[in-house]
Amino acid sequence: MKINSRNLFHSIFYLLFFFTYFFPEYLLVTYPKVSIYLTCFKIFFFLIILFISILNKNLFNKTVMFSFLFFLYFALISYIKVNNMNEVMNICICSLSLILLFNNGVKRDKINLFRSMSIFFSIMLIINTITIILYPNGMYVRNVTGLKDNWFLGYRNNHITYILPLYLAIIINSFLKYNFLSRNSKIISIILLILTFFTKSSTSILCMTLLTLSLILNKQIYACIRNLYVYVFSYIILYLSIIIFRIQKIFSFLIQSILKRDLSFTGRTRIWDYMLNGIKETPFLGHGLEQSAIRYEKYKVWHAHNQILEIIYETGLIGFLLFIMNLSIALKELKKFWNYEITKCLAVFLFIFFIMCLTEVYSYWYFFYIITTICNISYLLRRHEHE
């Protein structure tokens, strides 16, 4: 692709944008005063991308509207219940900024967007890997949690939030350039899998292994799974079996001998019970975003260790319904363009990401930008469109 001043300007904008919203935790810990400037930059970028969205008439579609409604309700219930507005506004601004960025970028500037995404997350992971090699026992200790396995990108479980965006960008870049999964994309996915082993996170390793195998064996997988609903119903069954009915005892050999986990998934079943009881207290409205200290005082945990339980706990069934509406748009788009290879790749990506969410919780903005990208899959298929 020809590099001109316009493309260069867009690429710099995207790189600064990603650096602002995926700011390395080590820099925040080392230079705490930078958080004030970071907040200002987040508001600045949000206003810019909001203005661009209005200018391009990309603000009023179902994906954006349901996202805005979700975060409006999230902010409202948090204000009523706990009045934890500083953190709430940070989450809302970050989430909506990324939603608007990908909603606009995929439609109008997808090549620059995903190329810049690849560059940024590659640099972050290279620096992080160097810090892991130099400081194998961790670089610092979190004052609040006392966790020691922290490096440039934060705690070891958090590294996957930088690996997966790069993985997503690699897949999309390959299809935009070649219209198929290139050999280089498969090689890079293996490298990312190796990097994941450095994190020592069982959930991340398992899911990256599944993702890498899905790329290498993509033809065989697509031949076996010919319908999107196979993924949907498989996940529903898996979720109910593990979270609600707890059938993991049947697979005790796999969990204990191979995954090196106890049957409670390192105490997660106890946490899920706490969260389910908490949901019963206010099932429709939710509790809002509680401060970490309050949540820990109530349940001796920092979060639900399950994304869906976390959403329902914080926003109730009302917020969960808005989230499902957004997800249903993404699934509808996947079904509509199911015959394309990139669609099947993104379906596998989303399915495995949801598997990760069975035992972990990720920031809302991380969740929503993936869904927003999939909701705009029709624009990814327009490879030769003039941008």
Strand order of the largest sheet: 1-2
- Strand portion: under 5%
Order of helix and strand elements from N to C terminus: HHHHHHEEHHHHHHHHHHHH
Instruction: Classify the helix fraction into a percent range.
Output: over 70%
**Largest sheet composition:** 2 strands, antiparallel
Shape: globular
End-to-end distance, in Å? Answer: 12 Å
The structural class is mainly alpha
Number of domains: 1
> Please, how many helices?
18
Mean pLDDT across all residues, rounded? 88
Number of strands: 2
Q: How are the elements arranged and paired?
A:
Blueprint: H1 5-21, H2 25-30, H3 34-55, H4 62-81, H5 85-108, H6 110-134, E1 150-151, E2 154-155, H7 160-178, H8 183-199, H9 202-216, H10 218-224, H11 228-244, H12 252-258, H13 268-281, H14 292-299, H15 307-336, H16 341-356, H17 364-375, H18 377-380
Antiparallel strand pairs: 1-2
Give a structural overview.
This protein has about 375 residues and is an all-alpha fold. It has one domain (about 5-380). It has 18 helices and 2 strands. Strands 1-2 form a two-stranded antiparallel sheet. α4 (about 60-80) packs antiparallel against α15 and α7 runs antiparallel to α8 (about 185-200). The longest helix has 30 residues, at about 305-335. It is globular. The termini are close together.
